[in-house]
Amino acid sequence: MAASMDNLLGSEEIAKFDKARKLSEEIDPETQPYKSKYEAREILLDLKSTVQALLNENEEIDDVKFMLATLEYQLGLNFIECEELSSGEEHLNKCLLLLKDNKANTKCISTVLASLNQLGILWSARSEFEKSFKFFQSAESLYKDYCHNSDTAPYSLNELFLSDDDRLSEHQRHLHMEKLHTLTLYYLAQIYGKLDDKDKSAMYCHTTLQRQLETKQYDAIDWAVNCATLSQYYLTADNFTQARHCLASASHIFSEALETYVQKDPSEISENEEDDPVQYRKADIARCWTKYCILLLQTSKDKLQSEEISDEATERREQLLQECESDRQSASATSNDNRDDGAGEETKTNEAEGAACEEKEDVEEKEDNHKDAESEKDMAKLSLRFQSLELTSLESAVSDKLVTSFEEARSVFLVGQKYILEAKEYYVIDGHVTDNISIVQDHSHLFKLLAFFEPDLERQCKMHKRRLDMLQDVLQDLNSQHYLAYCRQLQYEMAETYSGMVDLKISLTEVSNQRITPHAISKINSLISQSIKMYETFIESLKSPDGVMPEKLEDDLVKPTLVAYFCMGRLLSKYITIDLDTKLEFLDKSIEKYRFVVNYLNKNTQFIGILRTEYEICQEMISLVPLKMELMKKQSTIHPT
Length: 641
Prior knowledge:
Elements: H1 5-8, H2 11-24, H3 35-57, H4 62-81, H5 85-98, H6 109-125, H7 129-149, H8 170-194, H9 198-215, H10 220-236, H11 240-260, H12 277-337, H13 342-383, H14 392-396, H15 406-426, H16 433-453, H17 457-475, H18 484-511, H19 518-540, H20 555-572, H21 580-603, H22 612-638
Region (Disordered): 305-377
Pfam family, one: KBP_C
Main location: cytoplasm
């Protein structure tokens, strides 16, 4: 039975509902945070009584039931916003119960979708992600079924409380429905992430962003940050093309926010970063770009190193094949002496040719299948692009291909460094300590990766010196008590960097084919001392106030601590000196470091697996170094200086 809303509710009730909605959106003072919402609640409860009475008199009119369900939804939302979650859940469930037989009705499907979304959010907040997922999944299925079975745009969420003259157009209703579904997809992206299904989380996130672009229903800053965050997922899958596309899209859309943004006077900005959202969001997007450059260089480095190992293995394999071929020829000669006749040999030859043809066909079929698979991948990548955005200049600024040369690596490095400097404009050390440290560490990592591609050993050393300078600048400003974990990270990285420079300096003396100079010796020994000093500073931070090393280290500190001892043992043996007593003293200390590693692992055997290489080398060194020391003493006796 159809009826006009004006005949079901008077203008007074419609005005009350409108007032309740406006009150719900007001921002109250901190002293009375829910004042307006409580007022709205009273109005909604009063309206509920009125509509419930109307339903009791007109049970056959579906529209009245739909209006009551809308009020239950609004009350549920009201209680949730006032942090009364159980009461909010109760009202939302009442809403769905009222509409259980009319879920796909044009006049109430929006209410059902909104209620399912809110219940999904509610259970997610309780960390009940499986329950949350079921509500969002139900909303998604309901939307798809409705779109499949109906061409009519459904009423908006509160449209039953509008007068006939204020009803929405088909287009407005369609936009409202699509916005509700976009929210469902957005929440599904979050829940899939919580359920550790990263692939589906990324897919739903991309779909959400795409829909927001198409409908132009998005906040430019939020959209850009979400898209930049999505790029980090693609980085974990080594999909640099898609990651770059997301970052370029984020930067492009963020420029929209910058066009309308008016820089605030510094005196007007409080300590709360939310007061100036554009600047810190700009820095966050810049940091995502930095991670892209770091991962691209790191993956390129890893691939080149694996190829070097593979080349060595290939050379060995070819050598073995040659040996096998030699053996086979010898065996073949013996076989020919004992063959039966030509007919038998011809049969074998035909069989071999047939097998070769079959093998060739198999190879060709596999190649065709591979090409088809690659084509499907290319199509899938194309479908994940935001086609409406012009990103040529942004995407062409940095490669999406693995680099193989210093020039290619330098191009990526410069882009990463540009974004690091951009991020540091906001994340200064004063007020953003931990963020600033992370950014400096990223900068150091970029230099480290660039040095890998630099063929000139002297220039490599200079790059590592830059790393040391920037790390030291941060470390000296930190309070070791308040930022102990970060101090340890910086100390350890500096120790590793000094140690790496020792190896470079030694390599330089070896490739020069000249007698090592006193200056070079002094430099190498100085770098060794500085590396050991940093490792020891790290070790000291683990000790008790009275300077005693704990018998049992925390699990996450076992590997770095034992590796530090291992590295110190290695470094001590590299000191260059012509004084025998000094050299023996260094070697004796070296044995102490190796022995610490072996003793600790013998007592805590569960860690041997993660330090197998270091453990075995230390055992070997404990045996070999004393022999070396004895030999040095004997040689000194025979050839005294």
